[in-house]
Amino acid sequence: MSIAASQLPFENSLKAHFPLTFPIPSPATHPDLLTTKDLQREEDLLRNPTSFRSWWSAINTTREAFISLQKTEAPPDQAEEATALLGPLTSPLARISLQRLTYLYEAALAQFPGSFKLWKSYLNLRMSFVLGKLVVKKRAGGKKKFPEMKDALEEEHDDLEEWEASLDPVIGWEEWKSLVATFERALMWLPRFLTAWKMQLPRLWLMYLSLFFHPQCPPLLSHTHARHTFDRALRTLPPSLHSRIWVRYLLWAEKKGGSTTVHVYRRYLAVDPSVTERFTTLLLNPTNSSPRPLEAAKLLLSLARKASRGEYTSPEGKSPYQLLEDWIDVVEKFSDEVGLDVEETIESNDSAAASAEGANATDAISEQASATGNLIRMAGPAIPVSPDVKTTYPYDEDEDPVSPRKLNVEKIIHKDGLAVYKDQAGRLWTGLATYWIKRGEFDRAKETFENGLKSVLTIRDFTQIFDSYAEFGESLISAMMNSLENEDDETEEEAAETERELDAKIAEFEDLTDRRPFLVNDVLIRRNPNDVQEWEKRVALWGEDDDKVAATYMNALETINPRKATANLHRLYVNFAKFYEEGGASGQAEEDLDSARKILEKATKVNFKLVEDLAEVWCEWSEMEIRHDNYDDAIRVMQRATAIPKNTKLNYHDHTLSAQTRLFKSLKLWSFYVDLEESIASIESAKNVYDKILELRIANAQIIVNYAAFLEENKYFEESFKVCRVEPFARFLLSNVQIYERGVELFTFPISFEIWNIYLSKFVKRYGGTKLERARDLFEQALEKCPPKSCKPLFLMYAKLEEDYGLARRSMNILDRATKVVSDQDKFDMFTIYIAKATANYGLPATRPIYERALEVLPDRQTADMCLRFAAMERKLGEIDRARAIIAHASQFCDPRVNPDFWAQWHSFELDTGSEDTFKEMLRIKRSVQAQFNTEASYLAAETTAAQQGTRKADQDEPQDAMAAAESQAGGVKGFVAATTTRLPPVDGEEVHAVDGPVAPAANVDEIHISDDDEDL
Fold first, then answer.
1. How does residue 989 score in pLDDT terms, banded at 50, 70 and 90?
2. pTM of the entire structure?
3. Cα–Cα nearest to 507, from 476, 547, 544, 485
4. How far are the Cα atoms of 473, 474, 476, 862 from residue 479, in angstroms, in the given order?
5. Residue 387: which pLDDT band, with cuts at 50, 70 and 90?
6. CA 254 from centre of chain
7. What are 108-116's contacts with CB under 8 Å, separation 24+?
8. C-alpha dihedral over 68, 73, 78, 79, to 10 degrees?
9. Does 316 have pLDDT greater than 80?
């Protein structure tokens, strides 16, 4: 704007209007200040110069007169350029009004120099004529408590004053200077008179400072003078009010940019480091200068370290790792400006390592004054502390933003990143590698990638590093290929050299791709060196490379801790032994049984977590000997494994004991041993192994059954299942102890039930009725302790024995006993079998007592079925009335909606054998039972059953079958003999069909006609 103004031809004519307010206008210097209308006001003010109300009224009257005249004034006859340059002082009315108001204000301030109200009104007036019209912004709600500096800067930036149509700083330079001088005079006079100046001056200072944010503020005022003014405000106001000044000061510094921003922010960060993150953003994206990445990087590094120590909390809510990640971003983007090169990095690392060794030696020499070192420190260097007795850390040049020394990025990432944030190693390694790539140190970047791949512990970090590594290799290859395409600028030697380098890079990239499975496996093994499955995968990756496979097995066995290993550690030893046994992974080498035996021998001394794993090793060793026809060696291996110690009362499940100590009680080991003895050894040796298993009391039911089957196969029937009548404690002392007897003594029900079941079935099959009394004793012994839920098969087998070889009466007695002993869910089946046997042996009449007792014992849901069977039996015997009474008894347990089958059978029974009276009685009982079950629970049960069976609801009408249709047509039930004298009265609610005239009796085709003459015979 100033350049444009200087080029205007009427510049001098515009400048001629100024100055307007300096020197202070008066009637003596400006005769047109007063008119005839103002004489009375002037006389009143001369008579009452100490009346503030008079002065204030005069000022307001003059201002209101100016406003009213301004509204009626015609637009000035000037060019648009002049109007834009003069702003509020374009019209002569505005200029003369400014002088008149200035004259009044100055005269009033001469009388009341300490009036804050008068000064503020005067300054606002002067600002409106210079700065222009203030734009009023709408705010939601009132001012809250002063926020944190981060939020205060954002809010203040949005609330900065804005003006319209201001005075040009070149044309109106004198008025700008006069306005600043007025502010200076106000700040000089007010503190002398105000008692509460500390509370009122901040507002005046803020008004003054807002002048420097005006876009038209002259450079002579908005730079050095503004900075001095901000400094004077901080020196003048108390510390409690500094935050209001600093907000404007920092925003002004951000606007100016360059070194001004840096120096102002440095001063404030010494007091409040909460805006350091904002400062780093300004350093990287400055307004009027080049970036300062080194200073920003050092500030971010300092924040990351303080945050990790708990000394700093990010206003942005960032964690210490996020702050370190921001630092890495700066290092990646400005690698040349921030970090050291390779040679300087190596030299710095060496010096740091030497100093660390010296510090360790010093610490080793110094001793503590107590065992814990918490009482007093008598040796070592002094520890600096802050005034609040907190440990302070020594000066570090890497955190000093003023220091020009560059950073050792590699050392910082290792110390502050990889050593602390091990779960974020992928990002840290890739950041370091990217730093070296940006500096053009490709070999160092490759070395960094390789170190990262060899140190990470998670697949996520590995994938991040590997992808970056592969992308780096692809970019190098593509760059070399592009250079080969543009061979115009290269000689033949340079092109050949580039081709060789390209071939080498392609080979390296292919090797990296081939190594990926191995690198992934390395990561998983580093994460858990005791992961057996990952070691097995590593062996599989080597394929048929016998040397690598053997080395991997050896490394795995040396690395894995048996007590911390995952499942199937024993398989690693077994597979290693099979590796030598089978002649290597490819099978081309010579079999080496001696090496396999050494490995298995070593495995037998390993303290596995599970005894079964150790037993599996011994079994595999024995199987290996069998595969090579070394049967005697296989037996000797199992004899070593099953050696019984003197103290056999050890607890097999006591994990405080080693696996070798508890091995002799491993049933898996003894089972394999006894199978081996049965297969390739003698019968006596197998019997001895079985006896040892029984003596150790580790046998299960399957062992007992196998032992008995083994003896039976070899014709040792008596030893197999002959019961010796000896005391239980003496049975194990006999040399020819009976197997099944020992089995049932060792186990209780329900395990012994299976042994008894096999034992008794084989005994009956073997001897039949030749040893009937002995068989009876066995059955009684088995049933003595058998629980009710398991005794049904034994009773049936016992009854079958008596039926086939004994007395029928004893068989019936056994079945009768069974109906009293078995569980409730088995009683119905047992009564059914009992009734069937009684019918076969004694006939149908003999089953009546059994039916009657069944109805007393069975639960309600089974009573109805038993009643129907009972009624069917009575019907066969011609006892129709007894059958009807039994069915009527069962009806009380059957809800018509839940048990429609029962009522259908009764319906059929009445149709076949009943009369009209009995049929109606059946209907009456049905309605009564339905009313009895008319509860909410019954309704729900009926609905559920109807939905499952597909039946209709009980409250619906009965289906119209053929009989019902015929009855409705004839007015009665056909097929029944109409009752006359014995007819029952109608039930309430039952519809009775009236029949006109006497009902003719239905003709009975089966009726026997007897003549009257025969009555005399």
1. very low
2. 0.69
3. 476
4. 10, 8, 5, 90
5. low
6. 44
7. 108/52, 108/55, 108/56, 108/58, 108/59, 109/189, 111/49, 111/50, 111/55, 112/52, 112/55, 113/189, 113/192, 113/193, 114/189, 114/190, 114/192, 114/193, 114/194, 115/52, 116/190, 116/194, 116/200, 116/204
8. 70
9. yes
